[in-house]
Amino acid sequence: MLLTRLIYQIFFKKKTGITIFEYLRNVRMQHCLYELKHSDDTIVSIALNNGFANIQIFNRVFKEVYQMTPKQYREKNKK
């Protein structure tokens, strides 16, 4: 089972150029961007509903990817 998972991960990276974990992070972040822009849910709720273990991890990843905090993004892009 472990070998099968490892082979799948290697195959995925060769085909996409990114790891499964990077892909998952990107999908989660796209969902978060949409929710920050189009919902009134709290940032904590958005983070937890999209698979982040806690707000600290979400804030760190968000800032690494977008060079701003989720709050700054929401203020800049809220409709």
What proportion of the residues form beta strands (DSSP E)?
Answer: under 5%
- Structural class label: mainly alpha
Helix content: over 70%
Radius of gyration: 15 Å
Describe the fold and architecture:
77% of the residues lie in helices and 0% in strands. The chain has 5 helices and no strands. It has helices at residues 2-16, 20-38, 43-49, 55-66, 70-77. The protein is elongated. The protein starts with a helix and ends with a helix.
Summarize this structure briefly.
With 79 residues, the protein is mostly helical.
Question: How are the secondary structure elements laid out?
Answer:
Blueprint: H1 2-16, H2 20-38, H3 43-49, H4 55-66, H5 70-77
List the defining traits of the structure above.
79 residues; mainly alpha; 5 helices
